[in-house]
């Protein structure tokens, strides 16, 4: 059983929803990421989505774009991100890690070489924002060969027929983007999410986590009621950006507090 | 090479060999599916085509002349050089062929708002122009650095009623404006049509922009046969994203005797790293929804480009050009800033035609190529735009403020 499957099964057995947290590797400074990951785990995160910075993060809103830019000032790379996961695994062998990023750094690394290296250091899955099912074949074959999960996005505009096709390519979990547009955008409509999830839920046995637009514990709780899990990102990246230059431990603590609040809210269901 | 059916590219998935495709977030897929179905249902629809042709004739002023530059030809002492005068189009560049086509698509689908990205501002002006005419709301994304070096076009867009939205992310140039336009589109797809400015981006954009711009090559082919009595021996066009070049080249691709040269921006020199010549010096990768040649570092991050002409200052290129390079049908070469500036002056003094700095790259290459060819041979240079917008840049280099 993969780490992701393991964690999904544990949550199910405990009657809990998954809490997935997204931060950008190297943001706002390289030494912040590792202690923040550990602190998030201590405060109840189930899955860490580690953003791999890219010069042209086309699907991100302004908050996460800035996170990528801050990380790139320090030349944070895909190679460096694998290095970081290796360090994380020295003391944590349980928390699943999904790398979330864009195709070009992976293409440059080489799909095969990347899959092998990622599996070696203890990465569990990959979410490549700009590799929809139509273009994912090379990567999927490479990931399948080493047993890494391939996470896909579903959007409010995704038709049921298309969601079916996506579910066939996906493993680990599915990530439903609860808003039209980019990360961190406007306001999430819970009723909208509800009707879409009802339709998608019938297509797959994979857990469906919901993200984009979850900024506070109240929304997290409302969404957790409908889904198998919630993803928080912009709210963490915003906090980390506001603390740029502060000691790593202080940033980790601040992020941990947000996670603690989200955890308590979704566990109070 | 002769057995390639160029009209069958891209395939249904938008691929030109290994290039092109649709590398986008799921949030954009629906918008692209919708665009694709609209385009493929309208493209051969006689009423759509008739409206496009009518606008081309009466609004843009087509066909644009194919002009034999006799004095310049004589001075160079080789092949006869004809200029395809896209600079004489309404708004002053080839860009309008494409914006009219896409605005018609927007009109046929009932969208009320159009957005665009722009570098030099030519595409922004062309978009603002058609938006004004059709009564559509218009926002143009433009990198902050480009806003500073293209003040004239920024003001033109504002006069035309468009909102010019400064992009401050990333390198603050064309590529970042494109990211921002894609984000807007993903958010506002219900009422918004994204008028992309070049033959790049996710499928079906490279194809539909090529199809609209191919009017350049279809006219040039007809005109050349009528005026020179034969097909041209060589075609030359500058390549930013590649729309004016593919528009000229595409109708000639099956004519094996016609050599083609795409001219990229060599900036301060290919060897300095400060250029915008992905086909000459880049490697294939994925950006802005398609696989194509890119300028990137060893970690796959897109790097900053340099060119004296804002319209060529782009780290990628339309995917069809990447494919045409690999199969050897088109030769891609580079012209440096100083050569382009010299050509700008040369054509102005010799023919009384002031080319855009983008087009000046093609002009400069013609000056190298023509003398190597014989006097009975014919070159067509795509004069993609006029140089009025660049007078500030040229004057500044002369130390003059206008
Ligand atoms: C006059 C002119 N020529 C050429 C270009 C380059 O674009 P493309 O390569 O798509 O023709 C531009 C872009 O702004 C332009 O304004």
Features:
heterodimer, A: 269 residues, alpha/beta, TIM Barrel, nine-stranded parallel β-sheet, 12 helices, B: 402 residues, Rossmann fold, 2 domains, seven-stranded mixed β-sheet, four-stranded antiparallel β-sheet, 16 helices, 43% helix, binds pyridoxal-5'-phosphate
- Low-confidence sequence ranges of chain B: none
- What is the domain tally of chain B? 2
Radius of gyration of chain A: 17 Å
Number of helices of chain A: 12
- The percent range for helix content of chain B is 40-55%
Which CATH architecture of chain A?
Alpha-Beta Barrel
Please state the average pLDDT score of chain B: 96
> What value does the Rg of chain B take, in angstroms?
19 Å
The CATH superfamily of chain A is identified as: Aldolase class I
Name the structural class of chain A. alpha/beta
Largest sheet of chain B: 7 strands, mixed
CATH topology of chain A: TIM Barrel
End-to-end span of chain B in angstroms?
50 Å
Main sheet: strands, sense, barrel of chain A:
9 strands, parallel
| Dominant shape of chain A | globular
Low-confidence stretches of chain A: none
CATH topology of the largest domain in chain B: Rossmann fold
Structural class of chain B: alpha/beta
Bound compounds, please? Answer: pyridoxal-5'-phosphate
Distance between the termini of chain A: 28 Å
Biggest protein-protein contact in the assembly: A-B, 45 and 39 residues
């Amino acid at each position: 059983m993969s780490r992701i499957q393991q964690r999904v099964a544990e949550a199910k057995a405990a009657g809990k929803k998954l809490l997935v947290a997204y931060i950008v590797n190297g943001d706002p400074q390289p030494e912040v990421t590792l202690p923040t990951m550990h602190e998030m785990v201590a405060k109840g995160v189930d899955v860490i989505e580690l953003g791999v910075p890219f010069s042209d993060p086309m699907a991100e809103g302004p908050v996460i774009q800035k996170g990528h830019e801050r990380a790139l000032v320090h030349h944070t790379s895909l190679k460096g991100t694998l290095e970081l996961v290796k360090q994380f695994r020295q003391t944590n062998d349980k928390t699943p890690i999904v790398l979330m990023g864009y195709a070009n750094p992976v293409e440059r690394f080489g799909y095969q070489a990347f899959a092998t290296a990622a599996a070696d250091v203890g990465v569990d899955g990959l979410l490549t924002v700009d590799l929809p099912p139509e273009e994912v074949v090379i990567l999927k074959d490479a990931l399948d060969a080493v047993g890494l999960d391939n996470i896909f996005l579903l959007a409010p505009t995704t038709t049921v027929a298309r969601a079916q096709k996506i579910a066939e390519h996906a493993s680990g979990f599915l990530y439903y983007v609860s808003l039209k547009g980019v990360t961190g955008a406007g306001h999430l409509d819970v009723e909208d999410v509800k009707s879409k999830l009802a339709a998608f839920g019938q297509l797959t046995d994979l857990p469906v986590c919901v993200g984009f637009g979850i900024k506070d514990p109240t929304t997290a709780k409302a969404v957790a009621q409908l889904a198998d899990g919630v993803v928080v990102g912009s709210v963490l990246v915003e906090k980390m950006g506001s603390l740029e230059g502060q000691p790593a431990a202080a940033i980790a603590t601040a992020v941990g507090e947000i996670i603690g609040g989200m955890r308590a809210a979704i566990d109070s269901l | 090479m002769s057995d390639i059916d160029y009209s069958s590219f891209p395939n249904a998935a938008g691929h030109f060999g290994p290039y092109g495709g649709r590398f986008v977030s799921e949030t954009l897929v629906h918008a692209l599916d919708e665009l694709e179905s609209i385009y493929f249902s309208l493209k051969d629809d006689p009423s759509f085509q008739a409206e496009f042709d009518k606008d081309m004739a009466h609004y843009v002023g087509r066909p644009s002349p194919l002009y034999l530059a006799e004095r310049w030809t004589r001075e160079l002492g080789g092949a006869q050089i004809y200029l395809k005068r896209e600079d004489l189009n309404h708004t002053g560049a080839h860009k309008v062929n494409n914006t009219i086509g896409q605005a018609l698509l927007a009109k046929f689908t009932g969208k009320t708002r159009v957005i665009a990205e722009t570098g030099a501002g030519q595409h922004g002006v062309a978009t603002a122009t058609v938006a004004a005419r059709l009564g559509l709301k218009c926002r143009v994304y433009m990198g902050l650095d480009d806003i500073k070096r293209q003040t004239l076009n920024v003001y033109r867009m504002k006069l035309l009623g468009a909102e010019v939205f400064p992009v401050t992310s990333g390198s603050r140039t064309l590529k970042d404006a494109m990211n921002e336009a894609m984000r807007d589109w993903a958010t506002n797809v219900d009422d918004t049509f994204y008028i992309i400015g070049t033959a790049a981006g996710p499928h079906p954009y490279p194809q539909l922009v090529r199809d609209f711009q191919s009017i350049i090559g279809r006219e040039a082919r007809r005109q050349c046969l009528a005026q020179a009595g034969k097909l041209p021996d060589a075609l030359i066009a500058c390549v930013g994203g590649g729309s004016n070049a593919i528009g000229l080249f595409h109708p000639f691709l099956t004519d094996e005797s016609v050599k083609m040269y795409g001219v990229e921006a060599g900036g301060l020199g290919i060897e300095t790293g400060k250029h915008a010549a992905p086909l000459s010096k880049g490697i294939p990768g994925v950006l802005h929804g398609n696989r194509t040649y890119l300028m990137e570092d060893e970690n796959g991050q897109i790097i900053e480009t340099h060119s004296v002409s804002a319209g060529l200052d782009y780290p990628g290129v339309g995917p069809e050009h990447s494919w045409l390079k690999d199969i050897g049908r088109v030769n891609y070469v580079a012209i440096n800033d100083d050569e382009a500036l010299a050509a700008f002056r040369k054509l102005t003094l010799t023919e009384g035609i002031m080319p855009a700095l983008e087009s000046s790259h093609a002009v400069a290459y013609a000056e190298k190529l023509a003398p190597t060819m014989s006097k009975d041979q014919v070159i067509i240079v795509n004069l993609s735009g006029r140089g009025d917008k660049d007078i500030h840049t040229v004057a500044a280099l002369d130390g003059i403020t206008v």
